[in-house]
Amino acid sequence: MKLSCNQEKLNKSLNIVNKIIGVRGTLPILNNILLATDKGRLKLASTDLEIGITTWVGAKIEIEGSITLPAKVLTDFVGTNDDEKIDLELKETTLEIKSNKYNAHIKGIESSEFPLIPEIKTDKLLSLPVKLLQEAIRKILFSVATDETRPVLTGVYFVVDKNTLKLATTDSYRLAEATIKLEQSATKSASIIIPSRTMSELGRILSAVNSNVDVYLEENQILFMLGDTQIISRLIEGNFPDYTQIIPKDHSSQFEVVTNELAKVVKMASFFARESANNIKLNFTDNELLVSAVSPQLGDNVSKIPIKSEGENLDIAFNAKFVLDILGIIDEESVIVEANGKLQPTIIKPLKDKKFLYVVMPLRVDE
Amino acid sequence: MKLSCNQEKLNKSLNIVNKIIGVRGTLPILNNILLATDKGRLKLASTDLEIGITTWVGAKIEIEGSITLPAKVLTDFVGTNDDEKIDLELKETTLEIKSNKYNAHIKGIESSEFPLIPEIKTDKLLSLPVKLLQEAIRKILFSVATDETRPVLTGVYFVVDKNTLKLATTDSYRLAEATIKLEQSATKSASIIIPSRTMSELGRILSAVNSNVDVYLEENQILFMLGDTQIISRLIEGNFPDYTQIIPKDHSSQFEVVTNELAKVVKMASFFARESANNIKLNFTDNELLVSAVSPQLGDNVSKIPIKSEGENLDIAFNAKFVLDILGIIDEESVIVEANGKLQPTIIKPLKDKKFLYVVMPLRVDE
Predict the structure, then answer these.
(1) Is A302 in contact with B103 (Cβ distance < 8 A)?
(2) Is CATH 3.30.460.10 what the domain over B124-244 is classified as, yes or no?
């Protein structure tokens, strides 16, 4: 292998593939990045056996070849390099990296030992603008389960039907749903569960791209294709709970509240609720919301803010963290709270944007 | 106690006294902030028994009194409050904090249980502009010893003689010295050791002030007075080593290097020196510096940058971290390296600014 390429582009590509490295520290080869000449370009790839990321960078290739190199030293070295052009030359399993001011020899492992990143050969499932998918990921990922007792809840439920894509997450205390209208219908229907880590990596990589993302689906794999980069991931097996049953279809109370005012008073009450599992109380009346918390040790707190009400008044208790998580990702000025009494799942959603919807379970509290 | 004050000013004052809270978690009262009316102002104080911080905020006082309150909930609550005016009213040992939208009762501990922060009654030792002291702290604190085997090295050596103030730190591998010329001579000479934590707290608080700082010294205490805030600290007992003996008076080699170029190549070599105690090699020749590192596992690296040389060429090895620490706080474009061969203490200093000086011990390496 002998080639030269641009430092800035190589650095950007290394940072794309670098992030999933070292998550599973078992196999030494998984700490390495694969470098291989590939049809006039340099291919870079990494995998943790669950996710595989591949990207390509333009290169002037003199001799074909491939090697894997330790990700950390390679990324650090190329990232600190400020020469414009970098020459790579492989001698046995050591890669010489040479530029105007800097020279390094990095010892690698043969590329034949690198785990094969599977290729997907099916037709495209759907295509959508990167920004839409990125926003949806950002707005639903927070309510994914972190505890592994029910593996299906650690993933993002990804449901495609005609020209609608829904993403949903739930940890069984709250749920988040994003609905994306596709300009072109999907080629088939699908309901799959994607590991949340894949989605967060995808969100990260998407932020560097500004095009369309194409999605390919095979039996137990999904592939996202975006410009010069692709990310492939295994799926989580099992059935996602029918979360749509939990979303209330109707409501006995509806309140409109200014998002950041609600966030402020919930946060304030949370300071007094730290010792009682973040338990705070919301008392919705005709024109006013009282938010309160009581701590046997610290004291108590009450705040009031104006609201617009429809339907019944409501006394309800929530985990402050769950409410704050939701309010933290709603960009709109106002939110709507829809409830069916103090014990039923309660909807919190942006006033105008119908794409996103959150449901949170109230806490049962003694009067 | 009954008074009202401005939220913004109270919040700023709480943040000044809040930071040293909870360092020593033993006594519950040390998690509290003292609030007391004091000659038409509200006094706020905190202590960890080593450092005491006191600040005053303007208040409209109706009833005199005092109480101590848990720092965290008080600071969080006042910091999130966005009402302009806050009313405080003490009822037994509970303080009601009331403003337009928010209300809280916070349970306190009587102020009689709060440790007395000693008062200093001597005359002023010296006075100097805040910015000078703050810069000096920032530029020497990094080389203080963190390991407690020689307690004197965990402090900042603070030496006053006529119109010169010197601050010095050393962890016995490297040393840093700042020299400040005082506009008015100090009232007496002094050589004391101030805990590094006091100096870092002081540096933090100084950044919010823009005036002069007055320094008062008593047998085992030092007081820094800055505007409405004072910080008092115990001193470290013992004798600081005579560090001036280590600073070479002469040199056989002198090199001028561009600061950020040197930092870049040292950093690059450090990637390859992680497994060998950060050991990197510098080879100074007539016009060029070669910086290199060798890792048995990873490979090796050589970089070259231009320099201006006087005197003998030099092969010398350093701990890359020590060199990077120094270069990281030199703001000037170029640095001077002065050495007496490969085994003697080596000076690194800014090209022009004579106020700061760093010495680093080379590593002994086999040829």
Answers:
(1) yes
(2) no
User: A–B: how many Cβ contacts below 8 A?
Assistant: 88
* Position with higher pLDDT, B83 vs A210: B83
Q: Residue B365: what pLDDT?
A: 76
Are B271 and A297 a contacting pair at CB < 8 A? no
Neighbours of B250 (CB within 10 A): 6
User: How much is the average pLDDT of A356-364?
Assistant: 96
Q: Inspect the interface and report whether the beta carbons of A106 and B298 lie closer than 8 Å.
A: yes
Q: CA of B266: how far to CAs of B38, B165, B283, in Å?
A: 55, 32, 12
Nearest C-alpha of chain B: how many angstroms from A341?
Answer: 26
Across the interface, whether the CB atoms of B101 and A305 are under 8 A apart is answered: yes
Torsion, Cα of B67, B68, B71, B75 (10° steps)? 10
Test the A interface: residue of B74, B303, B304, B327 with most A CBs within 10 Å: B303
pLDDT tens digits along A51-81: 999 999 999 999 999 999 999 999 999 999 9
Contacts of A101 in chain B (CB under 8 A): 265, 303-305
pLDDT at B276: 87
B248-360 falls under which CATH superfamily?
A: DNA Polymerase III, subunit A, domain 2 (3.10.150.10)
* The two structure tokens encoding residue A222: 């999904």
B201, B178, B134: which is closest to B326 by C-alpha?
B178
Does the distance separating the beta carbons of B301 and A104 come in below 8 Å?
Answer: yes
Nearest chain B Cα to A291, which residue?
B102
Average pLDDT, chain B: 95
Q: Max Cα separation, chain A?
A: 78
What is the C-alpha separation between B157 and B18, in angstroms, rounded? Answer: 26
**Hey, are the CB atoms on A73 and B299 less than 8 Å from each other?**
yes
Alpha-carbon distance A34 to A54, whole Å? 9
CATH 3.10.150.10 domain span(s) along chain B: 2-113, 124-244, 248-360
Mutation target vs B (from A301, A304, A327; most B CBs, 10 A cutoff): A301
For an interface test with B, which of A11, A271, A290, A294 has the most B Cβ atoms less than 10 Å from its Cβ? A271
Mean per-residue pLDDT of chain A: 95
Please give the Cα distance from A209 to A222 (Å, whole number): 19
pLDDT of residue B24: 65
Place of tokens 């990296």: A97
Asked if the Cβ–Cβ distance from A73 to B268 is below 8 Å, we say no
Rounded percentage of chain B residues whose pLDDT exceeds 90: 91
* A80–B268 C-beta distance less than 8 A: yes
With beta carbons less than 8 A apart as the criterion, state whether B117 and B54 touch.
yes
Report the distance separating Cα A65 and Cα A313, nearest Å.
71
CB A290 within 8 A of CB A306: no
Predicted pLDDT at B129: 95
Nearest to A48 by CA among A64, A27, A62, A65: A27
Which residues in chain B have their CB less than 8 angstroms from residue A105's CB?
Answer: 299-301
pLDDT of residue A74: 97
- Tell whether the model's pLDDT for residue A194 goes beyond 80: yes
Whether the predicted pLDDT of B136 surpasses 90: yes
Q: What is the mean pLDDT of residues B69-96?
A: 97
Instruction: Give the pLDDT confidence score for residue B85 in this predicted structure.
Output: 97
Task: Please state the rounded mean pLDDT for residues A130-152.
Answer: 95
Q: What is the pLDDT of residues B4-58, one digit of tens each?
A: 999 999 999 999 999 899 766 678 899 999 999 999 999 999 999 999 999 999 9
According to CATH, the superfamily of the domain at A2-113 is: DNA Polymerase III, subunit A, domain 2 (3.10.150.10)
Look at B299 and A82 and tell me if their CB atoms are within 8 Å: no
pLDDT at A202: 95
Chain A residues lying within 8 Å of B81, measured CB to CB: 268
Pick the CATH number of A247-360 from 3.40.50.620, 3.10.150.10, 3.40.50.700, 3.40.190.10: 3.10.150.10
